[in-house]
Amino acid sequence: MNYTQEQTIYIVEKYLENPTRETVEKLAEELQKTSKSIIGKLSREGVYRRSVYKTKTGESPETKEQLVREIESALDLEIEILAGLEKAPKLVLKHLRNSL
After folding, report:
1. Domain residue spans in the chain?
2. For the chain, how far is it from start to end, CA to CA, in angstroms?
């Protein structure tokens, strides 16, 4: 799908005014393109920003492995000593890490 110079300028300006997924959807509908096409064009122009995933509580996601490594570091232990800890519920690992 090709874009004219005017369309490219328009897309970039509108997206920079309000860099949201809703803007992408509106542009796609307005220009009769797919949202993937609009995102691709914005990416090639160097302006598209992916939305950052957040958990239901609004926090950045952490893996159990990350939590266990932080606990290991705080306790100054080797990984073998805490083998199997990653199978504990994530909430328990977070409480443990936070209490250290």
Report:
1. 5-44, 64-99
2. 55
Q: Is the pLDDT of residue 92 over 80?
A: yes
pLDDT value at 1 more than 70: no
Average pLDDT, the chain: 90
Record the tokens describing residue 11, joined without a space: 């897309």
Higher pLDDT, 48 or 82: 48
- Are the C-beta atoms of 93 and 68 separated by less than 8 Å? yes
Within a 10 A sphere around the Cβ of 20, how many other Cβ atoms?
12
In Å, how far are 4, 5, 26, 74 from 88, measured between CA atoms? 55, 55, 44, 18
